Amino acid sequence: MKIEIWSDYVCPFCYIGKRRLEEALQETGLGLQAEVVFKAYQLDPDAPESSEESVVAGLAQKYGISQQEAQQMLQNVAEQAKTVGLQYDVDAMRPANTWNAHRLAKFAEQEGVAAEVAERLMKGHFVLGEAIGTEEALLNIAEEAGIERTLAAEMLASDEFSDEVQADITEARQLGVQGVPFFVINRKYAISGAQPTEAFAGALQKVAEEESS
């Protein structure tokens, strides 16, 4: 079965949803039958490449709430993340433009390390407090995943994979995707948001039964 995931690397629920899908694949024993493909989506295309401003401050400004309220909002999400073994560092998170991160992910797909790079980008932003919009952070992540640093640098300096990233974003719009994460299984079943692991497991089993009948 093919599972396509529209997500953004600075979307806190995308990392949680990714983990719950992984848990469901493990629980159902369908991990080896599933081809997981990451699709690009940008929550904030106008975000700076990097910023010294905290995500908390940005959230407060965006929604017209106090920094304390914004901190609490993110802390609530961080508590959800803990249920799937993720330790979000709310204070270390910084806004980042993810366009180049998505381009790197497409390059990683070509190099056979898409899963490793997707995981590492999310971990970098939410757990390690890295500026994943910057070239330095992206090159480090590429290198960790086994991509030659000079090749990754050449790719980032070009416009390579821009069309592929834009195609994903356009496709999401055509599908009516209002937010991420958004999961599509076999181009037939859609799951919106970071649903409970059981919801993913149920959908996966349904698809597996259909495929074997």
Summarize the structure.
With 213 residues, the chain is an alpha+beta fold.
Which keywords apply here?
213 residues, alpha+beta, four-stranded mixed β-sheet, 9 helices, 54% helix, 9% strand, globular
Topology:
Layout: E1 2-7, H1 12-28, E2 35-40, H2 55-63, H3 67-82, H4 99-110, H5 114-126, H6 135-144, H7 149-157, H8 162-175, E3 182-185, E4 189-192, H9 197-212
Parallel strand pairs: 1-2
Antiparallel strand pairs: 1-3, 3-4
If you compute it from the alpha carbons, what radius of gyration comes out, rounded to the nearest whole angstrom? 17 Å
Estimated helix fraction: 40-55%
| Side-by-side strand order of the widest sheet | 2-1-3-4
Beta fraction of the residues?
5-15%
Global structural class: alpha+beta
Query: Overall mean pLDDT score?
Result: 96
Q: Determine the N-to-C terminus distance.
A: 14 Å
Low-pLDDT parts are none
Largest sheet, in brief, is:
4 strands, mixed
With helices defined by DSSP (H or I, 4 residues minimum), what is the helix count? 9
Total beta strand runs: 4
- Please provide the ordered H/E string of secondary-structure elements: EHEHHHHHHHEEH
Which descriptor suits the 3D outline?
globular
Question: Can you give a write-up of this model?
Answer:
- The protein is 54% helix and 9% strand.
- With 213 residues, the protein is of the alpha+beta class.
- It is globular.
- Strand 1 (2-7), helix 1 (12-28) and strand 2 form a beta-alpha-beta unit.
